[in-house]
Amino acid sequence: MLLSVVGLSGCASSPPPARAQENICDIIAHEPAWYRAAQKSEARWGTPISTQIAFVRQESSFRHNARPPRPTLFGIIPMPRQSSAYGYAQAQDGTWDDYRRATGNRLARRTNIDDALDFIGWYNEMSRQRNGVALNDTYNLYLNYHEGHTGFRNRSYNSKPWLLNVARGVESRARTYEAQLPNCRLPSRWCVWPLC
């Protein structure tokens, strides 16, 4: 019985209300398992919890099955999506496959918060290794995340003022979350969902 309860901890849950997404304490209170998943990813890869949560807030607003909008032809005929991005982290198919191969986590799912936060940590560590971006440099980590490592090296973001604004917003949100974190009532280390 305990095994089945523990196995559910990474399952998808409803996103916090939009207003609650501005405060990391409200996010943690909404879903304590997300905090533990971020802790685990930080211990493994080094990206601060506040940065991980800011990435998820930007990419999916905490919706496990988020996808880019599907364009329509003449406003009615659905067309193919312009990106394969999916899940909490909005990871694209090829990059997600790279992550699963690199980590040996073949069963990882983009709709599982544990896997999504581990992916963010892994990707940011690759940004550090490939492009020398510090793991506390949320702004440049996000530009790597959005543009890819080659795009970042080629400074493709310079032609996208809107993206620079988004990266500044993610950086600002991560700073806010970091300042809020010491005031949060954090879940017990031994707290097992749904008993938290």
Beta-strand level of the residues, as a percent range?
A: under 5%
Compute the separation of the termini in Å. Answer: 16 Å
pLDDT < 50 runs, ≥5 residues: 1-10, 192-196
Largest sheet: 2 strands, antiparallel
Rg, Å, rounded: 17 Å
Strand order in the sheet with the most strands = 1-2
Arithmetic mean of pLDDT: 87
Structural class by SSE content: mainly alpha
Which sequence of SSEs, written as H and E, runs from N to C?
HHHHEEHHHH
The count of DSSP E runs of length 2 or more, i.e. the number of strands, is 2
By DSSP (H or I, 4+ residues per run), the number of helices equals: 8
Could you estimate the helical fraction of the residues in percent? 40-55%
Envelope shape: globular
Secondary-structure topology with pairs:
Elements lengths: L1 H6 L16 H7 L1 H14 L3 H12 L11 E2 L3 E2 L14 H11 L9 H19 L6 H16 L7 H20 L16
Antiparallel strand pairs: 1-2
Protein described:
The protein is mostly helical and 196 residues long. Helices cover 54% and strands 2% of the residues. It has a two-stranded antiparallel ribbon. Helix 3 (32-45) runs parallel beside helix 6 (113-131), helix 4 crosses helix 8 (161-180) and helix 6 (113-131) crosses helix 7. The longest helix has 20 residues, at 161-180. 35% of the residues are buried. Residues 1-10 and 192-196 have low confidence and may be disordered.
Record keyword descriptors for this entry:
two-stranded antiparallel sheet, 196 residues, disordered C terminus, 54% helix, mainly alpha, globular, disordered N terminus
